[in-house]
Amino acid sequence: MVMLQDGNRQILIVEDDEDTAEMVSSLLTEAGYKSVSVDTGETALSEIAAKSPDLVLLDLGLPDINGLEVLRRVRDTSFLPMIVLSGFSQERDKVRVLEAGADDFIGKPFAPDELVARIAALLRRVQWTPQAETKLVVRQLELDIPHRQAAIRGKKLHLTPVEYGLLITLMRSAGQLVTHDELLRTVWGEKYAGDYSVLRVNISRLRQKLEENPRRPAYIVTVPGEGYRMPTGRP
Ligand code: CA
Question: What are the residues whose beta carbon lies below 5 Å from ligand 1 (ion)?
Fold first, then answer.
């Protein structure tokens, strides 16, 4: 599996209604997330700055500063995933919230399953978003996306932009076949489809840097006639 470095995601609940906060908190615990609740905008901002949670569930009607203001202030400095939970669920409210920088909007009352599904979907998407401060991990291979830094068995890899592009593409699809043409299109661009030699050369270079034994690759495995696959199991 491709996963974030820390298995246990921390979610910040910003909600001044105690019953709602408790209900959401127990839902999240059941779904396997850790959570912390705060009941004002100011405490939300300081908690975000101090603990950098993985995702924020934000109520709009807060006693001190408006949720929209919280959203804007967070967005000024980070790509932190944020879902707004609000009793105002007109289309224009949604639009305002999304324009202020929310990743998603859920109207109250909401179905528990839906909330959990939206959180999971957002965390999945964030994983694939290069700007988000995330890490891809496949066995002993780690990719620090914001710093474009890869490491194998704890040792830094020095990669060219093309090698980095190949690596991130394979890691994002870990466990699955990535075809020659998919790799060429993703890393080099549309007009390279069919240019298998450029691909072979770069895969070979990447294996030299990555594999303990490049002749018997454990991370970039050839699928004959089709492409490559990065196995997720133990080598
Ligand atoms: Ca409220």
Answer: 16, 59, 61
59 has pLDDT over 80: yes
pTM (two decimals): 0.55
CA 41 to ligand 1 centroid distance, Å: 11
* Ligand 1 centroid from CA 107, angstroms: 12
Among candidate residues 52, 49, 60, the one with its CA nearest the CA of residue 14:
60
Distance 112 CA to ligand 1 centre (A): 18
Ligand 1 center–CA 42 separation, angstroms:
14
- Asked whether the beta carbons of 135 and 142 are under 8 A apart, the reply is yes
CA distance 117 to 134: 20
Q: What is the pLDDT of residues 182-234, one digit of tens each?
A: 898 888 776 677 778 878 888 998 999 999 999 999 999 999 999 999 999 75
CA distances from 116 to 41, 110, 112, 130, 151 (A): 23, 10, 6, 24, 32
Can you list the domains of the chain with their CATH numbers?
A: 10-127 (3.40.50.2300), 135-229 (1.10.10.10)
pLDDT of residue 120: 85
